[in-house]
Amino acid sequence: MTGSVRVLIVDDDPLVRGALSMILGGVPDLTVVGEATDGAEVPAAVAAHAPDVVLMDIRMPRVDGLAATEALRATAEPPEVLVLTTFDADEQVLRALRAGASGFLLKDTPPAEIVAAVRRVAAGEATLSPAVTRKLIAHVTAAAPVPGPDPKRDRAVRLLGGLSEREREVALLLGRGRTNAEISAELFMSVATVKAYVSRLLTKLDLNNRVQVALLVQDADLV
After folding, report:
1. Domain endpoint, select from 127, 158, 188
2. Is 95 exposed, middle or buried (0-12, 13-18, 19+ CB in 10 A)?
3. Among 127, 148, 179, which residue terminates a domain?
4. According to the model, what pLDDT value does residue 37 have?
5. Number of helices (H) and strands (E), helices first, in the chain?
6. Distance between CA atoms of 93 and 208, rounded to whole angstroms?
7. Are residues 110 and 148 in the same domain?
8. Nearest one of 141, 176, 163, 154 to 207, comparing CA atoms
9. How many domains does the structure of the chain reveal?
């Protein structure tokens, strides 16, 4: 991105909003354009301030960050969403990622890492480390399978069935939480080629980030 990254902070805790504003406001290429105290305020705040990135708390009293994220990501040309949580393997985080959030930050994340995460999200990159991705995938895998018809599984199988053999191989490795470097070594291709395949997967599957690809693979029971 060029120019300053515009950030909207959404959190019901004034201390958290103040701390985030102080952290981000002191960075030359980031600008805090507004704040909201509840998910119900998000549509109007986004319309008024046109942020590039929304820092979204999950737990809020009226409309939580999950519902707000789902509604926001369903609009035309929405901003990127970075959810804030106190847990790193919460079912709510999975729901946010499925809704199209670009990742999440723990509320005790060091300031420098918060700044770096906002920059990555603004640049269109997911903010989940491979270790966190693996933890989330393990959380999904541990869930008991539901007997009988499973529309979510059927949809995932159908979508992945439309991939080329090589795209499918990359998707399966993403489903196992592999990094680009690990996929490169396993499939004997350059890291740049892996990145190109990941971008192609996101386009073909109409997804926002590699974590959603991994979750789709899990939905299809392929790993």
Report:
1. 127
2. middle
3. 127
4. 93
5. 11, 5
6. 15
7. no
8. 163
9. 2
**Amino acid found at 186:** E
Residues 148 and 172 in one domain: yes
Range of the domain at 106: 5-127
Half-sphere exposure of 29 (CA within 13 A, CB side): 10
Are both 26 and 121 inside the same structural domain? yes
The per-residue pLDDT string of the chain (223 residues; one tens digit each, 9 = 90 and over) reads: 556 899 999 999 999 999 999 999 889 999 999 999 999 999 999 999 999 999 998 888 898 888 898 888 888 888 989 888 776 555 677 777 777 788 777 778 888 988 988 988 888 776 665 556 666 666 666 655 556 677 878 888 889 889 999 999 999 998 887 888 889 999 999 989 998 998 899 889 988 777 788 888 888 877 6
Residues 31 and 116 in one domain: yes
Could you tell me the sign of the dihedral formed by the alpha carbons of 81, 83, 88, 94, in that order? negative
For residues 36 and 123, state if they share a domain: yes
Cβ burial of 11 (10 Å; 0-12, 13-18, 19+) is buried
Q: Kindly report the backbone phi and psi dihedral angles of residue 121, in degrees, each rounded to the nearest multiple of 5, phi listed first.
A: -65, -40
Q: What is the pTM of this model?
A: 0.71
Count CB neighbours of 109 within 10 A.
16
**pLDDT at residue 204, as a whole number:** 92
The structure tokens 């079912």 sit at 91
CATH number at residue 197: 3.40.50.2300
